[in-house]
Amino acid sequence: MTGRVVQISGSVIDVRFDEGLLPRINDALTVELNGQTLVMEAAQHIGDNMVRCIMLSGSEGMSRGMEVTATGSPIR
């Protein structure tokens, strides 16, 4: 399943998904940035089909509207 970045606050990223399709808490999500795959972890469902995530690396260069992919499994 895929979503879109709607807000970036340092290492905290809010991602909106299609209605009824949210990743589980602690699932890994990925985003492509300049040819690199960055990983974040779903930390909280915050309503309005949004998930609050924690980046596991820097969020520099990220922007609203970027596509996020839910892996369906926890970080390994």
What does this structure look like?
By secondary structure, the protein is mainly beta. 0% of the residues lie in helices and 62% in strands. The chain has strands at residues 2-9, 12-17, 27-33, 36-47, 50-55, 67-74. It has a six-stranded antiparallel beta barrel with strand order 1-2-5-4-3-6. The protein is globular, with a radius of gyration of 11 Å.
Spatial order of the strands forming the largest sheet: 1-2-5-4-3-6
Beta-strand segment tally? 6
Give me the Rg, rounded: 11 Å
Structural class computed from helices and strand pairing: mainly beta
**How would you sum up the global shape?**
globular
* Topology order in helix (H) and strand (E) letters: EEEEEE
In what range is the share of β-strand residues?
Answer: over 45%
Portion of residues in helices?
A: under 10%
Number of helical segments with 4 or more residues: 0
Measure the end-to-end span: 19 Å
Mean pLDDT: 95
Largest sheet: 6 strands, antiparallel, barrel
Spans of at least 5 consecutive residues whose pLDDT stays below 50 are: none
Task: Write the SSE topology.
Blueprint (H helix, E strand, L loop, with lengths): L1 E8 L2 E6 L9 E7 L2 E12 L2 E6 L11 E8 L2
Antiparallel strand pairs: 1-2, 1-6, 2-5, 3-4, 3-6, 4-5
Summary tags:
mainly beta; six-stranded antiparallel barrel; 6 strands; globular
